Amino acid sequence: MFRSRLLLTVVAFLSSAISVSSIAIADEASKNSTAKEAGFVSLFDGKSLDGWKKSAENPDSWKVVDGMLVCEGERCHLFYTGELAPLKNFHFKADVKLMPGSNAGIYFHTQYQAKNWPKYGYECQVNISHKDPKKTSSLYGVENVDAETLAANGIRDNEWYTQEIIVRGKHIELKVNGKTLVDYTEPSDQEAFSDRFERRLGEGTFALQAHDPQSKAYFKNLRVKPLDE
Q: What is the pTM assigned to this prediction?
C-alpha cells in the first residue's frame, strides 16, 4: 500500500513538473519567435494582463490560459494600455484560433470604453463559421470577406491562423497567413459611419472582443511594429 501511494505521488509530481516545464518552453519559444521579427514588440507576456484593461461589463469573459488570451462569455472588450499606445502607423500580428460557431474581433485605432461595442476605429473581424456573413479578416462593415474566400485559403475552425493588420497613412491591409484579403484606402474626406460607430482612422489602441457566450476564441503571440508614415 505504501509503495503504491509513493509511486502515485512520484508520478503526480513528475507530471506537474513536465507541465510547468512545457509552458515555460512554449513561452520562451514565443519570445524568441517575436524577437526574430525585426522591429516587432510583444504586446502580451503570456502570463498576465499587464498592459491590458478589461471593459467594465462581464470581465470574467477574459482569462489568461497556458500562454494565451482566451475569451468565452458575454460581451467584454480587452484594451491594450501598454507603453506603445496610442499607435497611428503600425504592422500588427496575432495568432488566432476559433471554436466552431464563434465570433470575436480585433479593433484598432480605438479607445477604451467601459461598456458597449467600441465606437472608435475599425474592427478586423474574427469569425469562420458564426452566422454573421462577415468573416475573418473583414474590415467590418467596410470591406468584407466571405466564407468562400476563407475556404479557398484553408482557414478553418480549431486551427491557428496568423492575422496581420497594417496601417500606414490612410491605407489598411488585412492579411491571413501571409495572404492579403483586404486592401483598402480610406477617402480623405471620410465621415463617421454613424453615431454609434466612427469607422475612421486617426490613432488609438487595440481591443480584443469577447462577443457572446456561445463563442470561444484564443489569441497568442500578439506583437506590433510601429511604422513611419
A: 0.84
